[in-house]
């Protein structure tokens, strides 16, 4: 077991490698915080996981801001809310021109890195936000969205979710049209959250490699949201990439078992969080973290160490090869393990992979090279299919 490392325990070699590599995170829920007009991404916060100072400190060079609303909100209202969130991200970029730049291609990300700026990218988390309308999908592409997660935690009208009862036996014919249109638009198809059958239907349909923007390994933690070894293998065989999620409930079987063994505890947590926050998502996420850590301190839930992230990366690499694994933290949208409290801790990952004997080039692929390659493949597919990425 590796010990918890603080920033100064990163070896000089790891630090040097980390900061010369392009580090990309494919899933950050920080957008929820941006909806509060008082929130400024440019200053250091003592809560949450992401802001510009902590991204700089952790060498996080590019991140996909997740555009997310609950799957139960559907219809034109869902489209409207998605557009508001896209606007909120674009406004933060406009407000911080020295630090941030909107990126829509892999070349944009590389150019941002060369200019010492952080690339901000957009991903829509949940197909319900297109309101079953390919025209809306095309509008999202036009305003810069470069991936869409087909479902969130409930089914959409054309695809099954991993955490709902099957209604469509995977992807419907319209769902297949959505995937093909995303291919044509150069928008990556994200299979995080989808049912296993939906995943296999997507793989059979997509003309470009597919991503799991924030999913971990089911062999290490049996959550339906995680990917089986077979899914990881098949995703890789088609050129795709699994971006490991840092959420403790997806990393640790021990944590899941403890929660399951005590169904009352989840209810208590939810009630306490609702009491503190009402329905404000950003507040709920921050407060849940505090409540959980309180319960860990009381010994009621197990403590999950950040090195579990390394275990999942290493497992996925063993199954799929280092060309098909990356980082999809779920920062600001999930409960982080101890020692990975925010983006400033990212160099620990590079340090741990070096200690495990990973080559520098494999580490660079995992940190960002792989997802940039998949973006380029999505862009090439769009050109081939006559779209306009
Ligand atoms: Zn998610």
Task: Summarize the model shown.
This protein has 389 residues and is α/β, with parallel strands linked by helices. It has helices spanning 12-20, 31-34, 52-58, 76-95, 106-114, 134-142, 173-185, 196-205, 229-237, 248-251, 253-261, 263-277, 281-297, 307-320, 347-355, 360-384, and strands at residues 24-28, 62-67, 100-102, 118-125, 145-149, 188-190, 211-212, 241-244, 325-327. The model has no long low-confidence stretch (mean pLDDT 95).
Write up this protein.
Helix 6 (134-142) packs parallel to helix 7 (173-185) and helix 7 (173-185) crosses helix 16. It is globular, with a radius of gyration of 19 Å. Strands 1, 2, 3, 4, 5 and 6 form a 6-stranded parallel beta sheet that branches. A 3-stranded parallel beta sheet has the order 7-8-9. The chain contains 16 helices and 9 strands. By secondary structure, the chain is of the alpha/beta class. It has helices at 12-20, 31-34, 52-58, 76-95, 106-114, 134-142, 173-185, 196-205, 229-237, 248-251, 253-261, 263-277, 281-297, 307-320, 347-355, 360-384; strands at 24-28, 62-67, 100-102, 118-125, 145-149, 188-190, 211-212, 241-244, 325-327. The site of zinc ion has 3 residues, from loops.
């Amino acid at each position: 077991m590796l010990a918890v490392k603080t920033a100064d325990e990163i070896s000089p070699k790891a630090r040097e490698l980390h900061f010369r590599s392009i580090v990309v995170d494919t899933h950050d829920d920080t957008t929820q915080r941006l909806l509060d007009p008082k929130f400024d991404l440019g200053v250091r916060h003592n809560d949450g996981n992401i802001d510009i100072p902590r991204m700089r400190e952790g060498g996080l060079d590019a991140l996909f801001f997740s555009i997310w609303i609950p799957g139960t909100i559907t219809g034109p209202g869902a489209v409207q809310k998605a557009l508001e969130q896209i606007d909120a991200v674009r406004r933060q970029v406009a407000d911080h021109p020295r630090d941030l730049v909107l990126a829509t291609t892999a070349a944009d990300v590389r150019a941002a890195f060369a200019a010492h700026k952080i690339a901000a990218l957009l991903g829509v988390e949940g197909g319900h936000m297109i309101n079953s309308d390919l025209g809306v999908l095309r509008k999202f592409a036009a305003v810069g969205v470069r991936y869409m997660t087909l479902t969130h935690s409930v089914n959409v009208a054309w695809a099954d979710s991993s955490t709902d009862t099957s209604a469509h036996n995977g992807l419907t014919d319209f769902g297949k049209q959505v995937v093909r249109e995303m291919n044509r638009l150069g928008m990556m198809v994200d299979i995080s959250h989808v049912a296993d059958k939906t995943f296999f239907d997507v793989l059979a349909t997509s003309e470009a490699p597919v991503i799991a923007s924030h999913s971990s390994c089911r062999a290490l933690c049996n959550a339906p949201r995680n990917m089986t070894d077979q899914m990881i293998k098949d995703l890789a065989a088609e050129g795709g990439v699994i971006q490991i999620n840092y959420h403790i409930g997806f990393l640790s079987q021990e944590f899941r078992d403890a929660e399951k063994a005590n169904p009352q505890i989840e209810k208590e947590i939810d009630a306490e969080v609702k009491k503190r926050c009402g329905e404000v998502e950003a507040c709920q996420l921050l407060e849940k973290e505090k409540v959980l850590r309180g319960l860990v301190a009381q010994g009621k839930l197990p403590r999950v160490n950040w090195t579990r992230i390394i275990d999942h990366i290493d497992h996925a690499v063993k199954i799929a090869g280092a060309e098909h694994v990356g980082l999809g933290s779920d920062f600001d949208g999930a409960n982080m393990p101890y020692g990975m409290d925010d983006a400033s801790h990212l160099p620990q990952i590079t340090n741990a992979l070096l200690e495990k004997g990973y080559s520098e080039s494999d580490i660079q692929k995992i940190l960002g090279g792989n997802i940039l390659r998949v973006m380029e493949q999505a862009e090439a597919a769009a050109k081939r299919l006559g779209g306009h990425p």
